[in-house]
Write a structure and sequence with these properties.
single chain; about 70 residues; alpha+beta; two-stranded antiparallel sheet; 3 helices
């Protein structure tokens, strides 16, 4: 069994913290015991660029932070 949050907004959504970046979202998920986090903001060009830059494939359909970033979390 795993816990997931499938509705998280990024820093590019209205009324969200500037800290809603991938590293901070990963840290919050880790603290809460959440294994899978999903965002619908991938349609925002700047957010998509961050996703493509900072994530790598984990398994089919899932991604994870690059190892250097993951160590910082």
């Amino acid at each position: 069994m795993f816990y997931a949050d499938l509705h998280v907004h990024s820093k590019y959504s209205r009324a969200t913290s500037r800290d809603c970046d991938l590293e901070h979202l990963a840290l919050a998920a880790l603290r809460k015991g959440i294994s899978v986090v999903a965002t619908g903001d991938f349609t925002h060009p700047a957010w998509l660029a961050e996703i493509e830059d900072r994530l790598i494939p984990a398994e089919p359909g899932l991604f994870r932070l690059r190892p250097a970033l993951e160590r910082q979390v």
